[in-house]
Amino acid sequence: MPPSPRTRPPLHRVTVLDAAVELADAEGIEAVSMRRLAERLGVVPMALYKHVSDKEDLLDGMIDRVIAQFQPGDPSADPSADPSAWPDAVRRVLLSTREVVQRHPWARRVIETRTHRTPAVLAYMEAVTQLFLGGGLSPDLTHHVMHVLGNRIWGFSPELFNDPGGRPASDRPRTSGQPVPSDFPGILAIAADASARRPGATGCDEEFEFRFALDLLLDGIARLHASEWASPPL
Amino acid sequence: MPPSPRTRPPLHRVTVLDAAVELADAEGIEAVSMRRLAERLGVVPMALYKHVSDKEDLLDGMIDRVIAQFQPGDPSADPSADPSAWPDAVRRVLLSTREVVQRHPWARRVIETRTHRTPAVLAYMEAVTQLFLGGGLSPDLTHHVMHVLGNRIWGFSPELFNDPGGRPASDRPRTSGQPVPSDFPGILAIAADASARRPGATGCDEEFEFRFALDLLLDGIARLHASEWASPPL
DNA sequence: ACCTGAACACCGTTCAAGT
DNA sequence: ACCTGAACACCGTTCAAGT
């Protein structure tokens, strides 16, 4: 039986979000309905709407809770101390990311449908961006690298990269809305570089990014093939 | 007004699937419900169930119709004639794939949720596999390459690669069910090689594949960084 | 063989009302 | 401030019935 309203502590946003994450872990994302979630919390469905504005907001929040578990890299290691250390640092970050995503198998698919840049998403992107910039990569190369990793590894949707500057954006698509806050210097540096490079362009050139990722892969594969490939190589 | 049952030609599976694709293109995948689709076809919702067994089957069929548009490569070019031509051939295939996926923006996300290996999916994978094998890549390297491309480029789910052999598979996950038909020699060669290499293993080592993809990317990025990177390089 | 009608068990979300 | 009840407009799917 559900706990009586008198004994149950009042709901908070995190309580709701974490219960939703638990439910998705246990029974899959398609089991996460407002009604089932409310039932699990011993509450009537409408009670949830005090803590999330609608189901989109619930999903945004669930993803935030997952991304909050990502290790944004070892903060004790100063990347500029040893610029050549960035590949290992990136590898560590992404392998720990993968562990989190494996614990929440529904997360990647949900991340792919999000077009909002929540603070948690921005903070994570900023941390990874700093690894590359700190390693001496140019803002331009870092930008492309974030696209390759974002799309192919995390599942970030391309819209997430659109128009991070604070420009007019009157007829922007349904993406996000709010500009990048100023405490994400790496992301801002990349955005500034991109708009300096292609002045008229808002957002990114998806065609170019796709070809970049593809050629990067094919080039690597060709080299593996040319050398005497024998598994496992890594 | 909907056409009268007398004047409307009888529905066929393709008619239903193509109408669903059109609807998804026009109003997004979330607009594709059995009821809205039926309405668009001038028919009562239940009439659709003669042509698709349920909504999963509808989505499978829609993806089949999209994948059927993929160009499986230029069949007039014999890959073994010029083994070094495979990177260009792959590039052409994937760029044409991308054009199709761009025309159906909902497709990538739906593909990611499919775990069935429909004949169209198999035929496409077979064609790409043959490009690599024909270029002289080992079955093992081809296998890894298909994982990298499948996951990161097409959105194929990892389950799609599981256990393609015709082994017992009594307690296989909910994936697929039917073994690979024998007219996909490239896929079978890869599967045979994989199970010879890791005898006990059923399916693939996701951890290993992930590290493979990641290291391939990081290695490529490091080299771009080391050389004097200046965009556009491609 | 193909389609229909009524029904069931679900959804997300509104509004006005309760404490 | 937080939760509830009743209601609305949707879902996918069943079954038995129609032509």
Automatic annotation (TrEMBL), chains A, B:
DNA-binding region: 33-52
InterPro entries reported for this sequence: Homeodomain-like_sf, HTH-type_TetR-like_transc_reg, HTH_TetR, Repressor_TetR_C, Tet_transcr_reg_TetR, Tet_transcr_reg_TetR-rel_C_sf
GO molecular function, a single term: DNA-binding transcription factor activity
Annotated keywords: DNA-binding, Repressor, Transcription, Transcription regulation
Coiled-coil regions listed in the entry: none
GO biological process terms, semicolon-separated: negative regulation of DNA-templated transcription; response to antibiotic
Cross-referenced Pfam families: TetR_C_1, TetR_N
Domain annotation HTH tetR-type: ranges: 10-70
Protein name according to UniProt: TetR/AcrR family transcriptional regulator
Organism: Candidatus Phosphoribacter hodrii
Species classification: Bacteria, Bacillati, Actinomycetota, Actinomycetes, Micrococcales
